[in-house]
Amino acid sequence: MTAMDPLTSAAPQPCCPEFAAVSRRGLFTGAVALAGATTLVGSAAVTASAASATPAPAVLVVLSLRGAADGLSMVVPHADPVYYAARPRIAVPADRLLAKDGMFGLHPALAPLLPMWAAGQVAAVHATGLPSPNRSHFAAMEEVEDADPGSESRSGWLNRLIGTAPGRSPLQGFNMSGGVTPTSLFGPEPTMSASAVDDVGLPGEDEWDHGERRRSLRTLWDHDRSPLGRAMRSTYEAVDTFGPAQAAADTTSSYPDTDLGKALAQVARAIRGNVGVEVFTVDQGDWDMHAGIGSADGGWMVDNVGELAGAIAAFLGDLGDQAGKVTLLTISEFGRRVVENASQGLDHGYGNVMLLAGAGVRGGRYYGSWPGLRADGDADLLVTTDYRSVLAEVVATRFGASTATVFPRFSPEPVGVMTSL
């Protein structure tokens, strides 16, 4: 695919029982409490070998928009007449859009990203998604994050990515949401999960411990060559290696006072500590807007988009001398229908938009092949770019990794959104 030709307040509760019944935040809280620790080793830490982290040559931050964000509101196809006909009450007016070209424009709440868009640091790829529709939140999340349909292997694409790099430190993959590791990081490579940089530590270790816990662990495990011994050494050595991140300045106060702002502030702090993390996962929710989406002047969509843009802008400005190696992308399990429903919301759809920002991004442009909108039948935005093609381009250009290893049985098509190594 090539770049498009420029001529051509409080949010309501989610409506989907599967999405509302068990929130990811609830899962995280329960997992941390169950583990009895603020630092959790990844899903398969028993296979880990002890390894010290080394500075990562490239860092990828994957920001998941949980609940199915409406890409047609974030990046509006203002030149497609069906968009305005299908959304008489919730459409974003064309004269309010930012960075307009002949087809698309950015939601006005994305204004914090406009300077970076103009500087070529932010881009959008439209009509992306799974190879076939999946309208179940959790099933689609798992399918997107596994990125290997039909496989019986329990490993996510980010776990496979860090598996292509030397060293098996849990620090290579880090879930900065705390608790449960997302499917994308699940697999044989060890990973870590915490809610904040200062939460990384050994359970029970405090100022009264005087190093006794670490000495005890080393006595128990330093000479144990079993898989469990290797896992334990990998864990406490990774915690020791994380010190420079904890010594880095905490700039949370310069971010939006939101969950996403706080999480990205912690990611930036870890990156500035240069401790060897290669991939981070971060969540933002909730985007499950079946009702009460609001208008361009305010409401649920404006709040979410504004939170997203403000947090990303603060993050990109907070990286210091590490900015040249950090790429961020957004992904959501699926998009939403073209036609608004009676409750001024949008039901589950198919195609969506992905935003990319930072190092290696050919920014200031819209990418993808636009299929046109229809208001009849399923009224979905069709997918013309498999989301894995976008991810594969990031993997190949930023990490030099084998896309065949990270995305088995998939042949990516060129998108053009990333520069080559």
From TrEMBL:
InterPro entries: DUF1501, TAT_signal
Protein name: DUF1501 domain-containing protein
Organism of origin: Nocardioides agri
